[in-house]
Specification:
Blueprint lengths: L7 E9 L2 E6 L3 E5 L14 E7 L2 E7 H4 L12 E7 L2 E7 L1 E9 L12 H6 E7 L2 E6 L1 H4 L10
Parallel strand pairs: 2-10, 5-7
Antiparallel strand pairs: 1-2, 1-8, 3-6, 4-5, 6-7, 9-10
C-alpha cells in the first residue's frame, strides 16, 4: 500500500498568453526577474538571450515565441522560471507566476484531441481545474528547440 503523498504532484503555476501552465516543482530551481539579456546572434527566435544569474550563464527562452503566441503589447515586466536540464541553466520567460498547486497524479489527463498543436508539442498532459485547464509543461520538450548538430 502506497503512502497518500506518493500520488500528489506539486506544480509551480505560470500564465503565458492567458493560459495556465504547470511545471513540476522538482524541475524548478528558482524564479527571477531577468535583467540585462544579451542577444545571441543567429539563435532561433525563441531564445530571448543570455544572462548572468549569480555567476551562472542562463539561456533565456521566450515562452510566448516558443508556443507561437503573440508578444504582449506594452513593456510590462516578465518573470523567468529557472530550471536546469542536462547540466545547463535555463530561464523560461512567462507573463505571471502563480501559486504552487498540489494535484493528484491520477487526475492528469492526456492532451485533448482538439488541442492546439503548439501546446501539444510541449505538453505532458492536462489537469482540469474549476473553470480552467492547467497544461503540464514537459520541460525536456520545451528545451528541444533546434535539432542538435552532431559532429560528423
Amino acid at each position: 500500500m502506497s503512502a497518500p503523498n506518493e500520488d500528489i504532484v506539486e506544480y509551480v503555476t505560470a500564465t503565458i498568453g492567458g493560459q495556465l501552465f504547470g511545471l513540476p516543482i522538482s524541475r524548478v530551481q528558482d524564479v527571477f526577474v531577468p535583467e540585462r539579456l544579451a542577444r545571441v546572434p543567429l539563435a532561433p527566435a525563441e531564445i530571448a538571450g543570455l544572462l548572468n544569474l549569480r555567476g551562472r550563464i542562463v539561456t533565456t527562452i521566450d515562452m510566448r515565441r516558443r508556443l507561437g503566441l503573440p508578444q504582449p503589447s506594452g513593456e510590462g515586466s516578465r518573470l523567468a522560471i529557472g530550471i536546469e536540464c542536462r547540466g545547463e541553466s535555463y530561464g523560461l520567460l512567462v507573463d505571471e507566476i502563480g501559486e504552487v498547486l498540489k494535484l493528484s497524479r491520477l487526475s492528469r489527463e492526456d492532451n485533448p484531441v482538439n488541442f492546439d498543436p503548439g501546446l501539444a508539442r510541449v505538453s505532458a498532459g492536462v489537469h482540469r481545474l474549476e473553470g480552467r485547464l492547467l497544461v503540464v509543461l514537459d520541460v525536456d520538450r520545451v528545451l528541444d528547440i533546434a535539432p542538435r548538430a552532431e559532429a560528423a
